[in-house]
């Protein structure tokens, strides 16, 4: 199969690309190497994702993205330096390749930054996603997996979060754009027969995690003997989901779409295990064998108090079964962090 993956050089995307290539598929990776975080991280992700299965060597300087694209391009893997807001640029890629399915992971991420740049989030997460659906319509691509987010649940007091819950009250522009993506996705499914699964990811972590996310940030600061920004009283809690389980959920969603027609589904992907901020920090400390010093700060606008994924639908519909408990996942992440020195 020939899959188009947007954001394939990011955290989740690079793991997905690696899995697809390893299992004999071809991948077209579209990524604009956005400066939301250091693009060198994405270059490293790209190299790690393809080096285990494709024979190539990268001799360019780290800042030379075009060189990276040239060196990693093979019949099995094509990398495009492309912004999804540019429909004409996307159209050239769609016209060049026979695409069986699209897995759309690219987005402007982050709750707090979205409050500062709401219009930019609208451009990327809504307009950019609509460009992809328009091209799926034009080129008659009928299978589409889309990354949504647990943030759409806002500060819901109903635990665990279920896909049937009302999610009409997001508390950040980022969450609102993800909710809009789900609604507009249904429009394209209804009008043009695009089979689609929207996956609500719950706080994904593991090797290659974005450096701005709490687990990665805390690990780095503790290892450097720096203060950890600690928002609130430590009671905020998240349903942390290990990257291998997320990839398993994405792959099973793809397989479900390939076997079924007339599909539009929203599915939670989480661990169904809630860890509060105090527990998260202490688990990192244990694995680093170092204590942290906290910089106590008030809760931030847009942050939710608690997330908890109801995963009954994921289990019954696609056979999703998360396997990585938080303690073991943090152990794996810290081992990766210490090896990479990042």
Number of domains: 1
Radius of gyration: 19 Å
Largest sheet strand order? 3-2-1-4-5-6-11
Number of helices in the DSSP assignment: 12
From the spread of the alpha carbons, the general shape counts as globular
- Return the CATH class: Alpha Beta
* H/E element sequence: EHEHHEHEHHEHEEHEEEHEEHEHH
Strand element count: 13
CATH architecture grouping? 3-Layer(aba) Sandwich
Let me know the average pLDDT.
93
CATH superfamily: NAD(P)-binding Rossmann-like Domain
Give me some keywords for this one.
single chain; 342 residues; alpha/beta; Rossmann fold; 7-stranded parallel beta sheet; two-stranded parallel sheet; 12 helices; 13 strands; 44% helix; globular
Could you characterize what this model shows?
It is a single chain. A 7-stranded parallel sheet has the order 3-2-1-4-5-6-11, with helices on both faces. A two-stranded parallel sheet has the order 7-10. The chain is an alpha/beta fold and 342 residues long. It has one domain: NAD(P)-binding Rossmann-like Domain (Rossmann fold). It is built from 12 helices and 13 strands. The protein is globular.
Show the helix and strand layout.
Elements: E1 2-6, H1 11-22, E2 26-31, H2 39-51, H3 65-72, E3 77-81, H4 87-96, E4 101-104, H5 111-116, H6 118-138, E5 143-149, H7 173-192, E6 195-201, E7 204-205, H8 214-223, E8 228-231, E9 237-238, E10 241-242, H9 243-259, E11 264-269, E12 275-276, H10 277-288, E13 294-297, H11 312-318, H12 326-340
Parallel strand pairs: 1-2, 1-4, 2-3, 4-5, 5-6, 6-11, 7-10, 8-13
Antiparallel strand pairs: 9-12
Helix pairs in contact: 1-2, 1-9, 4-6, 6-7, 8-10, 8-12, 10-12
């Amino acid at each position: 199969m020939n899959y188009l993956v947007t954001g394939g050089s990011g955290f989740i995307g690079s793991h997905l690309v690696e899995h697809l290539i390893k299992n004999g598929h071809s991948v077209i990776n579209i990524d604009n190497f956005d400066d939301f975080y250091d693009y060198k991280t994405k270059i490293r992700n790209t190299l790690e994702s393809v080096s285990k299965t494709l024979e190539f060597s990268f001799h360019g300087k780290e800042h030379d993205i075009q060189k990276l694209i040239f060196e990693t391009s093979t019949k099995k893997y094509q990398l495009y330096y492309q912004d999804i807001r540019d429909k004409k640029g996307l159209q050239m890629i769609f016209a060049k390749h026979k695409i069986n399915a699209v897995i759309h992971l690219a987005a402007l991420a982050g709750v707090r930054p979205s409050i500062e740049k709401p219009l930019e989030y609208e451009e990327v997460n809504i307009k950019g996603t609509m460009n992809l659906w328009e091209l799926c319509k034009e080129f008659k691509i009928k299978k589409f997996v889309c990354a949504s987010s647990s943030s759409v649940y806002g500060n819901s007091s109903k635990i665990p979060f279920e896909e049937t819950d009302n999610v009409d009250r997001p508390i950040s522009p980022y969450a609102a754009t993800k909710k809009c993506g789900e609604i507009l996705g249904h429009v394209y499914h209804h009008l043009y027969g695009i089979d689609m699964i929207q996956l609500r990811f719950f706080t994904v972590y593991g090797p290659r995690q974005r450096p701005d996310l709490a687990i990665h940030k805390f690990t780095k600061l503790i290892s450097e003997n720096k203060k950890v920004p600690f928002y609130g009283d430590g009671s905020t809690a998240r349903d942390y989901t290990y990257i291998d389980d997320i990839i398993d959920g994405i792959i099973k969603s793809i397989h479900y779409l390939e076997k079924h027609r007339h599909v539009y589904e929203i599915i939670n992907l989480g661990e169904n295990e809630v860890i509060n901020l105090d527990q998260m920090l202490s688990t990192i400390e244990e694995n680093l064998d170092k204590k942290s010093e906290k910089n106590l700060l008030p809760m931030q606008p847009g942050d939710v108090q608690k997330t908890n994924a109801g995963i009954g639908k994921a289990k019954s519909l696609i056979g999703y079964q998360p396997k990585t408990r938080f303690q073991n996942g943090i152990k794996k992440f810290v081992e990766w962090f210490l090896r990479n020195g990042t």
